[in-house]
Amino acid sequence: METPQGRPEPAQRAIAAACYVVLFVLGALQGLIGCFNYGRSPVPLWAIMFAVVIFATCVLAGWGMGTFGGGLAPALGWIIVSFVLSMGRPNGSIIITGTSAGEWYLYGGSLGAVTGVAAAYILRARARPRPRSGASAG
To answer: Rounded to whole angstroms, how far apart are CA atoms 16 and 111?
Structure first.
């Protein structure tokens, strides 16, 4: 339902905000799981699969929410977690190594997240009804 000014009701805004938070956490969890499992055997296959999963999550979240932000929320969660965990620690430990699997995970996942957000935006733009140019007088 909408208010007379055409704005969504406060309850709808709260539900939408909660959905964005859940999508952000979903992306962060995918990043967390991927950071610790990208190097499993067969080595580059798992890293590529994690990249495909974040791509699908961004596209489906944008499509499901019907907004650009729906695709952006899981991408931001994934990027923040993955890049924070890829930084070296003062004691010298590192979670995502500079191996081919680590590079496939970080670069492939980043590419998957960005293209997933772009695909969600394109899906949203195509779904939006276009105004008619030139109304015909009947």
So the answer is: 26
Indicate the burial class of 18 (C-beta count within 10 angstroms; 0-12, 13-18, 19 or more): exposed
CB 100 within 8 A of CB 50: no
3-state secondary structure of 69: helix
Residue 93 has pLDDT above 60, yes or no: yes
Per DSSP, 105 falls in state: I
Between 47 and 92, name the one with better pLDDT. Answer: 47
Residue holding tokens 């276009």? 130
pTM of the model as a whole? 0.84
Question: Per the structure block, which two tokens stand in for 124?
Answer: 């949203």
- For 4, the token pair is 């007379």
